[in-house]
Structures are given as structure tokens and as C-alpha cells.
Amino acid sequence: MKIGFAGLGVMGGPMARHLVQTGHEVTGFNRSPDKARAWAEATGGRFAATVAEASDGVELLVLCVGNDDDVRQVVTEALPHLAPGAVIVDHTTTSAPVAREMAALAAGTGRAFIDAPVSGGQAGAENGQLSVMAGGDATALARVEATLMAYSKAVKHMGPSGSGQLTKMVNQIAIAGVVQGLAEAVHFAEVAGLDTTAAYDAISKGAAQSWQMDNRWKTMAEGQFEFGFAVDWMRKDLGLVLDEARTNGAHLSLTALVDQFYSEVQAMGGARWDTSSLAARLQDRKPRS
Questions:
Q1: What b/e sequence results for 245-271 when a residue is b if at least 16 CB atoms lie within 10 Å of its CB, and e otherwise?
Q2: Is residue 153 among the annotated active site residues?
Q3: 3-class DSSP state of 40
Q4: What pLDDT score was predicted for residue 287?
Q5: Are residues 268 and 172 in contact, defined by beta-carbon separation less than 8 angstroms?
Q6: Angle at CA 152, nearest 5°, toward 149 and 158?
Q7: pLDDT score recorded for residue 209
Q8: In the prediction, which pLDDT does 289 show?
Q9: In 27-133, where does DSSP find H-type helix?
Q10: Which of 35, 153, 168, 218 is catalytic?
Q11: 12-21 and 33-43 are packed helices; what angle lies between their axes, rounded to 10 degrees?
């Protein structure tokens, strides 16, 4: 396919690279032109200086940008330049209302907009193992699903526009609770005088096992947080979750509390730390001998 890709950061760059490697003609745009040039030189993709240039005549436009306003700007600029019947797939984590708004805007020009946030983090993007949760027109998604599998292990259609974003909110709610529980478990093991590695070995094959435990227990215990999905990004996502909950009436007491804990991590200077840095706010609360 002839593809445009907007947003070549830690997630978008590897995703766009996978598309090039599977034989598609990919033109990449980034707000920082130097990043887009570097991506093009490294992958063999094409460089675009503007959204219009990246969108010119493409059948598929993929977005992986920052927030609602970024999505609005890119889609608005891109629509007049896309091929007739083109599909826009937005991997940005945004609000559900902006997904519905962009779907209506695209439909008015004869194109389709799919809200398709992802889970799997930077490692998933690098390894082509992302999980995609999609909302929007099922027929349009079916047209591009095989293409999206270049960087995905699963693509799941969740329903009408906005459903992908709502599902990503479910994902973030679940992660927030698990990471806080894991941080407290590591903290308790340390305060109790247990060998944290032995404690992990003892519990990680039972009901407590999780992706977060397998990938973050050791680094939490070692106080290593300079990697992974940043606290700033998680707070953005949890803000979307809590806004939606205020609208639909869902009760998210734990999620609101964990969001508050992340604000404490930001105040500690951990805005760019991995989300597992919830453990850092507990490390200063160990009993002094």
C-alpha cells in the first residue's frame, strides 16, 4: 500500500519501519523534521516535511502523535490530500469524543477514521508485537488489518467509533491497579527482610503472576526506573480515563488514587520515569534502623 505515517517517536518510528520492511511505500512525517529525515535514512522510507506531503494520494494514513489536539490538526490537514476512500488509522491514545469527531469528519469526505490505540509499549513496537484495539467502521478496518499486522500480534475490532479508545482506558485502569499492588508487594518484601528475588521466584508461578511482575519486579526492587512508559504519559491517559468516568458514571476510586500517587512521583522528579516508579515513592518510607 501507499502509506503516510505521522508521528515517528519511540512508538511510531519502529511501527513505520515494520511497514517499510514488509514492502509498503511509506512516507513519514514528524513535527521535528530532523527525526523524520533520520527515520527515512535508516529505514529506506520517504521523508515528508509536511502533513500534506505525507498524505498526498495515500490509501492509508497512520497516526501516532501526542494528544487530541495533535490528532485534530493532522487529520484536518491531511483529509484534502488523501486518496478517495482512504483509511486513517489513529494509534494515539486520545479521548473517545475526539475519535467520534474525527470519524464524522472523515466520513464527510468519503474516507474512514479508525481509532486504534495500542498496548505493548516501546518493546512491543520494536518487536512488532503490539495489541491493537479498534473502533470504527468494520469494513474499513478489514481493508487495512493485514497491513497493521506488520507491527501487531492482534487487532481486535471493539465496536463503533470511540470503542478503541474506551478499551484502551480499560487497559490503563487494569495496569494502574496492578502496578500499585506490585509496588506495595516489593516494598513489603523489603521491609519484611525477605530476599526479593526469592520472593519473586516463590510467587511468580502462581495466581499473582502478571506481565508487570515478570518485567518490572526486579527493576522495582533495584530502584531502576529510567526506561519504559513515562509517568507523564500515564497521567495523560489516566486523565482521559477519569474524564470519561465522570461522564459515564463509572466508579474508579483506585484509579483516581493511583493517579494521585503518580503526581507525587512527578513531584519527586520522575516525570519521565517508567510507570513502575510508583515503587520510588515507597522507598523513602522504609523504617529506619
A1: beeeeeebeebeebbebbeebeeeebe
A2: no
A3: helix
A4: 52
A5: no
A6: 90
A7: 98
A8: 41
A9: 33-43, 51-55, 68-78, 96-107, 121-127
A10: 168
A11: 30
